[in-house]
Amino acid sequence: MRILPASFKTLLLIGLTLIAYLPALHNGFIWDDDASLMKNQTLFGWSGLHELWFNPLALQQYYPITGTVFWIEYQLWRLDPVGYHANVLLYGLNAVLFALALRKLRLPAPWFAATIFAVPSGDGRIGRLDHRDQEHPFHCVFSWEHSRLPAI
Predict the structure, then answer these.
(1) Where do the domains of the chain lie?
(2) Cα separation of 152 and 150, whole Å?
(3) Residue 33 contacts by C-beta under 8 Å, 6 or more apart in sequence?
């Protein structure tokens, strides 16, 4: 049996994720997105970027990395919702990092498990912009780096 290279599996997994969440790419803003984006005064200038990091009350919850990502995206897309739905790509990247972590742990079928992870679960978090903090690839990257540390 021929084994596919990891680069091909990576592209395939990201492609499957994009296909699975294609309907979300056409969404507008929903639920709490108005508070996170449209009414969020911290996105409109450089002083807001400072507020995101140094004022814990600048947003509904203190998530400076997520707020900074929103700030950057606002500078790029303004209030065009299509640009903000790049979180679908982040989710696909998260699935790839999940597969790599499972492979590093020598668990069976890591790419299959990551595909199941990437398939829509119906919870709507990927289509919602304000829940981006819950699917950041940073979580997998930090877990990956943590697994490289020697045991104490």
Answers:
(1) 1-27+85-147, 32-81
(2) 6
(3) 128, 129, 130
Structure confidence by residue, pLDDT tens digits, 105-125: 889 999 999 998 887 665 555
The whole model's pTM is what?
Answer: 0.69
For the record, the structure tokens of 112 come out as: 């299959």
Q: Quick one: CA torsion of 15, 21, 25, 29, rounded to 10 degrees?
A: -150
Closest by CA position to 148, among listed 104, 111, 106: 104
Q: List, in order, residues 6 or more apart from 38 with CB less than 8 Å away.
A: 29, 79
Q: Residue holding tokens 């877990």?
A: 143
Write the single-letter amino acid at 125: R
- In the numeric block, which tokens belong to residue 132? 């981006």
Residues 6+ positions from 123 with CB-CB distance below 8 Å: none
